[in-house]
């Protein structure tokens, strides 16, 4: 008697540990239901209507300030349109058409001096760094004597000549040493003015020179804003990301927790300060981190830490890339398959007919393979591709038709 039926049933029972099922949900409903960190990766992560759904659903929770950093101007435009039509409120946008950001506002002199040093190295002033730092420290003391230190306040003072600045230092009750450091470092003063011109260029897409708005993430989070959106691309992404790291660090000194959405954020390399800090803050529970990228491993420069509570996996450019990222996000399982094994009929010494016995063969497989996301054959109608999602609700993975999940919103294009 064949044991085929018993072996097949046992394989089905063992394979149930994969816990992958089909389901249906749209992006807006999905984003409203989930709680915790999120990663969205794959070609369709460029759908800007979906990113807009994500941002708006986070605002609806009203549980912590939400910051979105995006490289897509279309997202900024869509957020502004929703704010203008009063579909959302309590949102500030900083971008080319809304240059309201106030760089360095609320930061310490020590932090600002660090960025002066970074820009000096970028511009090749390595031999002048020491006198530049002495002159810059003196200028920051003079600014702090009358104003909150910030980029526009510093630039305003640097528009004066050295004699006027040193005279103002003495009038403000500062020591002669500070005034002397300004008068004795004329060449460094010229270089510092060029450095701050460069800093203004780095922030040019979100900042109007001379504008004293007193708005940044710190003031916005402490105020009554529920959401802050920024176009986060710069002519020097390394310095810009380092600044954002400091800004978020000090924002978390004003509020206990923030939610940060990174929409195709550019990280310079695997040691990018912003990337490393946000991953650390995520582990510490200070930041609820949501990453959106068409290839999350490439975006994070191979960073292996993809431990996210909620996952949305679309197809990538190649099956191999999809499988590679799926392994990191969903892991593997032991797949059991029945295989026939020929042998003699039991209890019979001689038989022409060989008995066929069945046994279980095991192999390691991905929980979600690239072929699981392909459209299934259908007659007379076009079938949708699939995406895979996982949430904190349980250990299941659900395969969702892409056409059900993605929103179609006029005027919000998909970026490819």
TrEMBL record:
Species for this entry: Frisingicoccus caecimuris
Protein name in UniProt: TraD/TraG TraM recognition site domain-containing protein
